[in-house]
Amino acid sequence: MADICPEKIVEAGIIPLIPYHYIAGLNNIVFNVNAPILLRLLTCKDAINLNRECSYPDHINPRAVKKACHLENVGLAQIYFRHETIDPRAGSGIILFIEGIYLRDTDKLFDIYTNTLNWLNIAGEKPFLFVVCYGDPIHYNDISITRRILDQKLKPNSKYKNPCEITYANEDSESLLITHTKLFNVVAR
C-alpha cells in the first residue's frame, strides 16, 4: 500500500497540520507511542481542492497524489494510522472529523468509514473508528446515542467490543493526541 498519498512513518512527537476547518482547526497531531506509526493524512483530498497542490509536501508519494487528492464525490475520513508493522493486537485507526450538527447522521458516518476502508483496501484490518466532532457545543446525549448506533453498525465486522469512540474538539483544542498502551486512543486537546 505504499502508493496511497500521503504517508509517513512517524515516531513519538508532533506532526504539524494545516488547520483547515474540516479538521476542527487543529494545528498538530501529538503521538505518544512506543513504536513507529504509519500515518496517512487523507485530508490531502480536501486540501488540494483549495490549494491546487497537496498541503503536506514532506510526505507525498508524487505518483499517488493524483490518486488520493483528485477523488470526486467520495467521502473519506481524514486520517488513517497503524503501527509501521501491523500489530493485530493494537489494530489500526481511522479518524473522521465531522461538524457536531451532523453527528447524528450515522448513515453518513458509516458510509464515510466504509468508503475509506474500501479505498485504502484495509477492510481486513477491521480498524477502530475515532470520530472527532467540532463546532457548537454538543450535548452528551448526542455523543452517546451516535456512539451506540455506530457500535451496532460496526460490530459485525469488528474485532472490538465497542469499535467506535467519539471525542469533542472545542474551540480551544489545538492538538489531536494519539496514544498507545494496549490499544490506540485519540483525544482532542
Characterization of the model:
It is a single chain. This protein has one domain. Helices cover 24% and strands 29% of the residues. The chain has a 6-stranded mixed β-sheet with strand order 1-4-5-6-7-8, covered by helices on one side. Strands 2-3-9-10 form a 4-stranded mixed β-sheet, with no helix packed on it.
Structural descriptors:
4 helices, 4-stranded mixed β-sheet, alpha/beta, 189 residues
Largest sheet: 6 strands, mixed
Order of helices and strands: EEEEHHEEHEHEEE
Which strand order spans the largest sheet, edge to edge or round the barrel? 1-4-5-6-7-8
Query: How many independent structural domains?
Result: 1
The percent range for helix content is 10-25%
Helical/strand content category: alpha/beta
Quaternary form: single chain
Radius of gyration: 15 Å
Low-confidence stretches: 48-52, 59-67
Count of β-strands: 10
Ends distance: 31 Å
The count of helical stretches stands at: 4
Shape: globular
Average pLDDT confidence is 81
Content of β-strand: 25-35%
Concise structural overview:
With 189 residues, this protein is of the alpha/beta class. It contains 4 helices and 10 strands. It has helices at 44-51, 62-69, 106-120, 140-154; strands spanning 7-10, 13-16, 28-32, 37-41, 79-83, 92-99, 128-134, 164-169, 175-180, 184-188.
